[in-house]
Design brief:
The complex is a heterodimer of chains A (about 350) and B (about 725).
Chain A (H helix, E strand, L loop, with lengths): L2 E10 L2 E11 L4 E5 L6 H9 L6 E6 L2 E2 L10 E4 L11 H11 L4 H14 L15 H13 L5 E5 L7 H18 L3 E5 L2 H7 L2 E6 L2 E6 L1 H6 L4 H6 L4 E11 L2 E6 L2 E6 L6 E7 L4 E5 L7 E10 L4 E7 L2 E7 L11 E6 L4 E5 L1
Parallel strand pairs in A: 3-8, 3-9, 6-7, 7-8
Antiparallel strand pairs in A: 1-2, 1-4, 4-5, 9-10, 11-12, 11-14, 12-13, 14-20, 15-19, 16-17, 16-19, 17-18
Chain B lengths: L1 H16 L27 H7 L5 H16 L4 H25 E2 L2 E2 L2 H7 L11 H20 L7 H30 L8 H8 L2 H4 L2 H4 L6 H29 L5 H13 L4 H10 L4 H10 L10 H26 L2 H9 L4 H30 L2 H6 L6 H10 L5 H26 L21 H28 L2 E3 L3 E4 L2 H7 L2 E3 L2 E3 L5 H31 L5 H13 L2 H11 L1 E2 L2 E2 L4 H24 L4 H9 L4 H12 L1 H17 L15 H10 L3 H26 L17
Antiparallel strand pairs in B: 1-2, 3-4, 5-6, 7-8
Helix pairs in contact in B: 1-3, 1-6, 3-4, 4-6, 6-7, 7-20, 7-23, 7-24, 7-25, 11-15, 11-17, 11-21, 12-15, 13-21, 15-17, 16-17, 17-20, 19-20, 20-25, 22-31, 23-26, 23-29, 24-26, 26-29, 27-28, 29-31, 30-31
Classes of the chains: A alpha+beta (about 350), B mainly alpha (about 725).
The complex binds adenosine-5'-diphosphate and magnesium ion.
InterPro entries (chain B): MetI-like (IPR000515), MetI-like_sf (IPR035906)
Family (chain B): Belongs to the binding-protein-dependent transport system permease family.
Protein name (chain B): Iron ABC transporter permease
């Protein structure tokens, strides 16, 4: 079912955790709330769950106004960052819990719980205690426990932050697969933009209690609307460039001595803030051809799959990643920097 | 919405089918059934307002009916909440106004008389009908608040907050307020502000003649001197014990822990009794001195020395319990850091560890101070001429003086001391706590005590511990000899006198002198303990887990009631509950209520400590899994809280059995309690029986502790989870 926020505000005393947020989560999609720590993601999620009630605004689930309903009265389940498995109950009892509370009989609840555990690949673990499971297994129990209630909305609060990197990738794929297979409506909170891009249909980026931008992963990465977004969605180098319109759908961006032509219909001539993606920067030993930016390597590190360089140029210090590792450039080397058009973004004038 | 409907109907039923006012003979006789309409005494609320001239009840019932109407209307949620809030709030206001405004002799205050003219009607204390209507109105009010989105939209939470707040207002705040009023009133209840000043300025209270040589000091100074000495002494001893228990490899730590439990299950005056056996006129020391050197026996133990010693023995364990947590909470990592910074062990101890413990030390001092000024048993047994406020209040209420006003003024003074200490401590320490027990797992090892400190601690603590054991030994033996000091023939006479059971033709007869008070005590304590635990844990759950307007106030109120001395509570109950609207003096109910509200703050504190160790997301998980608040409490929180439940139950029971100060004002011939009975025996010099009875009580309480421990059982947790956190291994 869909979730809708209309101008929702949440204040704690004088502090404002969420400052006027509106969005719609379409039924059957996975939408991520993404943002740095403290930006109000968890508060927003907990308002969907009914664990906190908003100070202002309305919340609708499946078109029904649920603003003042408590968590129990909403058809919503949540998977917690700490998993919140009840330590005094077995795995099966944990998964049965919600079913029993909604009035099912014991045998029936146990059957559905077993089915739920099978869905997350944990058949055979019913009698274990939560403390006898690994982190990934606990995570799956938490998912099964929320899932068996067939909630109209399923919420995840940084579900993977307690797992190691490898398991994180596996679990996020499992969650996405489950969501698509069962057609669930999911709101997912994370501060990790890669994780967000990997699982989401749509991403809502928050900053300081407000929505900064929302859209598909590709929109956000390729067309960030603000400097914050350019910095937050992937790495980027902020720079000042001067814009000159060449055609109705094309401008030239001048950064120091480099000049790049990119597609653009809106920006007027003059100074603008430009973000340059590190992967769009190519580094050659100096001297390069005309239109490249001369610079000097300040730092170079070898990371196995690629090189990372910090380069001092007239347009500021640029951070670049470079897939060519066989001929690394050393710190102090004079270089020519060229920029690929798809990695140069005009963020705001 | 079914809940508003149910509560309105229940309230209206109570207004129609139960006597509104309290009955002399209680409800169970059933005689009231036939007089529900016709009898002025037995009539229901409806009948009273229509047929018996109590017109002021009609608006209350009308608002209840309005609630029913609102519940039946098909309204939108928030609108219904608003209307219900208006109806039930108005009903409550009217209820309180009539209950406070109209008493045994018409209007209760002069200005109402002047304003509205004499009222030729009267009403007695509220009975079952009235009480139920009040409860229904309160419930409706909470539901209304929840409907409007208050308390997280949860009616159970709203109801729980209302219950806790209302009961604290009724049974702690209101009685204490009554003391204030009483202190200003003369014998006829007239308001005389000057009287309070007279009463408080009395020579007997403030004289300082003991310092200048001639005569005695006033009771206020006596109380203060004693409390300061007791606070300092128990803190020093408690610290010594805590250091030995945690920072040395002393072999008998377990024994030390047991020693700390004993005084908690011991009625407070037992130590005083044992001191009399050793130092009293016919005590061992005097006898030995007389026998060996011909020294006349002295009454040396009676007075400041005796009370001080007894309080030191009685309250050191409490200080120990406070301080052991503090000493353990000092992070070993900080001490290790200090040592790597060139500080030797002594420098580390004196510049890092001790300063870190300072808030804890202040806490322990406060506890010792308050225990001392609240103590009634030891001063009455050992005080002699050394009067303190608690005994002085007692004599003002039950003695020949019968001066309630003076009692109230003294109680006010006592309360001022306690609250003064409480606020001073908060000012100095604030809410700062350096105890650093975190979930992170502190990997450092506690630094052993430097030799100097260790030796000092051992030299203080170990002889003291030995002496405590010795006193208990004497107390035990004292009940097994004929007449202590004169005839040491072993005998069971005292036990027989207290606990004899005779077989006769009519069956068993409980002919022992103690049975009456014993069974009353057990019965009332057994009723009070679960209620104390339930209310305490409920309050703790609200304070730790719920956010609502007024949370801070509620927490402050429970903390504050912890600092109110028992004597003050006892006197306050006498004043507040022997006149309408709540007229329960002389009943068992007043004793049970006193037990509950006297002991609840400790349950709250323990519950809060235990609950804040349980990851909050467990509750929230349950809520999002369709577990409503009460179910969450029952299935998730309580199972994880078993140790705290045991603690609260045991404490509720034990304190109810051992308390003296609060209940000495409330007991009657019909409802006599064990401790007050023993105290009377001691005052009459009947030590044998008193000691035998005390020992029996101690054994009973040990048994109760074990049984409760067994019934509630161990917490069932996964074996890999040392901390209770959402199942993270
Ligand atoms: N219970 C609370 N009381 C006071 N402030 C809070 C509370 N919960 C969150 N906040 C504040 O609201 C802001 C947003 O918090 P949160 O939603 O948890 O952020 P995020 O999940 O994005 O890290 C933070 O500044 C936080 O300090
Ligand atoms: Mg968060």
């Amino acid at each position: 079912m869909s979730v809708e926020f209309r101008d929702v505000v949440k204040r704690y005393g004088t502090a404002t955790a969420v400052a006027g947020v509106s969005f719609i989560v379409e039924a059957g999609t996975l939408v991520t709330l993404l943002g740095p720590s403290g930006c109000g993601k968890t508060t927003t999620l907990r308002m969907i769950a009914g664990l906190v009630l908003p100070s202002e605004g309305r919340i609708l689930i499946a078109g029904r106004d649920v603003t003042n309903l408590s968590a129990t009265q909403r058809d919503v389940s949540m998977v917690f960052q700490s998993y919140a498995l009840f330590p005094h109950m077995s795995v099966l009892e944990n998964v049965c819990y919600g079913l029993r509370r909604s009035g099912q009989r014991k045998a029936e609840a146990a059957d559905r719980a077993r089915e739920g555990l099978k869905q997350v690949g944990l058949a055979g673990f019913e009698e274990r205690q939560p403390s006898e499971l690994s982190g990934g297994q606990q995570q799956r129990v938490a998912v099964a426990r929320a899932l068996v209630l067939k909630p109209s909305v399923l919420l995840f609060d940084e579900p993977l932050s307690n797992l190691d990197a490898r398991l994180r990738r596996q679990m996020r794929e499992e969650i996405r697969e489950l969501q698509q297979r069962l057609g669930l409506t999911v709101v997912y909170v994370t501060h990790d933009q890669q994780e967000a891009m990997a699982v989401s249909d749509r991403i809502i980026v928050m900053n300081a209690g407000r929505i900064e931008q929302q859209g598909g992963p590709r929109d956000l990465y390729e067309r960030p609307a603000t400097p914050f977004l350019a910095r937050f969605m992937g790495e980027s180098n902020p720079a000042r460039g001067s814009i000159r319109r060449l055609a109705p759908d094309k401008v030239s961006v001048r950064l120091g001595e480099a000049e790049i032509e990119i597609a653009d219909t809106a920006t007027a001539d003059g100074e603008a803030t430009v973000a340059v993606r590190p992967e769009a920067i190519t580094v050659e030993p100096a001297p390069g051809p005309a239109g490249t930016l001369p610079g000097k390597i300040a730092k170079a590190s070898y990371l196995g799959t690629h090189m990372e360089y910090s380069i001092n140029t007239a347009a500021g210090t640029l951070f670049a990643t470079c897939p060519r590792v066989e001929r690394p450039l050393a710190a102090g080397a004079a270089v020519a920097v060229s920029l690929a058009p798809r990695g140069v973004i005009i963020v705001r004038q | 919405m079914r809940a508003p409907l149910a509560w309105s109907v229940a309230g209206l039923l109570a207004a129609v089918a139960l006597p509104w006012y309290a009955l002399q003979e209680g409800l169970d006789s059933g005689a009231w059934l036939s007089g529900l309409w016709s009898s002025e005494d037995y009539a229901s609320g409806l009948a009273q307002s229509i047929a018996h001239g109590k017109w002021w009840l009609a608006p209350v019932l009308a608002s209840l009916a309005a609630c029913l109407a609102v519940a039946l209307l098909p309204l939108e949620r928030e609108r219904q909440g608003t209307l219900l809030l208006l109806a039930s709030g108005l009903g409550l206001l009217l209820f309180v106004a009539q209950a406070l405004g109209i008493g045994l002799r018409g209007w209760t205050t002069e200005w109402l008389n002047a304003l509205l003219g004499e009222l030729d009607a009267r009403q007695v204390g509220i009975g079952a009908g009235g009480a139920l209507v009040l409860i229904a109105l309160l419930s409706l009010l909470s539901i209304a608040l929840a409907l409007r989105g208050g308390f997280g939209g949860d009616a159970f939470v709203a109801g729980a907050v209302t219950t806790v707040a209302a009961s604290i207002v009724l049974f702690t705040a209101w009685p204490i307020l009554r003391i204030l009023l009483q202190a200003f009133q003369d014998g006829d209840g007239a308001f005389m502000p000057a009287l309070l000043i007279d009463r408080l300025a009395a020579e007997k209270i403030w004289s300082l003649r003991c310092l200048t040589g001639g005569g005695r000091c006033g009771v206020a100074w006596n109380t203060l001197f004693l409390a300061l000495a007791c606070g300092a002494g128990t803190t020093a001893l408690g610290l010594a014990f805590a250091l030995i228990a945690t920072r040395t490899c002393f072999a008998y730590k377990k024994t030390l822990r047991v020693l700390t439990v004993l005084p908690i299950i011991t009625p407070p005056f037992v130590i005083g009794l044992a001191l009399i056996l050793v130092f009293g006129r016919s005590g061992l020391v005097n006898q030995f001195l007389e026998w060996s050197m011909g020294v006349q026996s002295t009454r040396w133990i009676y007075g400041f020395q005796g009370v001080f010693l007894a309080q030191l023995f009685a309250f050191t364990p409490v200080a120990f319990l406070v301080l052991i947590g503090v000493v353990e909470g000092v992070s070993p990592t900080l001490e290790e850091a200090s040592q790597t910074l060139r500080a030797d062990r002594w420098a580390t101890f004196s510049t890092v560890s001790l300063p870190l413990m300072r808030p804890g030390l202040a806490n322990a001092f406060l506890v010792g101070f308050i225990e001392s000024i609240a103590d009634f048993g030891n001063p009455i047994v050992l005080g002699g001429d050394y009067g303190v406020l608690s005994t002085e209040i007692y004599f003002a209420v039950v003695g020949a003086q019968l001066d309630y006003g003076r009692a109230a003024a003294l109680a006010l003074l006592l309360l001022t001391f306690a609250l003064g200490a409480f606020f001073l401590q908060r000012r100095i320490v604030g809410t700062r706590s350096y105890a650093t027990i975190s979930g992170k797992g502190d990997s450092g090892l506690p630094t052993p005590l430097p030799d100097r400190a260790r030796r000092a601690a051992q030299w203080i603590a170990l002889p003291w511990a030995g002496f405590t054991l010795l006193l208990y030994g004497f107390a035990f033996v004292g009940g097994l000899v004929k007449v202590w000091g004169r005839d040491y023939t072993p005998t069971l006479d005292h036990y027989a006198k207290a606990f004899a059971i005779e077989h006769t033709a009519d069956g068993l007869i409980w002919s022992g002198a103690a049975w009456n008070s014993f069974w009353t005590t057990v019965k009332l304590a057994a009723i009070a303990a679960p209620l104390t635990a339930a209310l305490g844990l409920l309050a703790a759950w609200l304070l730790v887990r719920q956010r609502f307007a007024g949370r801070a106030t509620l927490e402050f109120a429970t903390m504050l009631s912890f600092a109110v001395p028992g004597t003050v509570i006892g006197v306050a109950y006498v004043f507040a509950f022997n006149v309408p609207p709540i007229e329960i003096t002389g009943t068992a109910m007043i004793i049970v209520l006193c037990f509950i509200f006297r002991n609840m703050p400790v349950g709250v504190r323990a519950g809060m400590a235990a609950m804040s160790q349980i990851d909050r997301s467990l509750d929230e998980a349950s809520l999002t899994l369709r577990g409503r608040a009460p179910q969450t409490l029952v299935y998730v929180v309580l199972p994880l809280l078993r140790p705290a439940i045991v603690g609260a139950l045991v404490y509720g029971f034990v304190r109810a059995v051992t308390t003296v100060s609060a209940v000495v004002f409330l007991v009657t011939a019909e409802y006599e309690l064990a401790t007050t009975y023993i105290i009377l025996r001691v005052i009459n010099g009947d030590y044998g029986l008193a000691i035998a009875y005390s020992c029996a009580l101690i054994v009973l309480m040990l048994a109760v502790i074990l049984v409760i421990q067994f019934l509630v059982g161990e917490r069932r947790l996964g074996r890999r989870a040392p901390q209770i956190q959402g199942g993270r291994a």
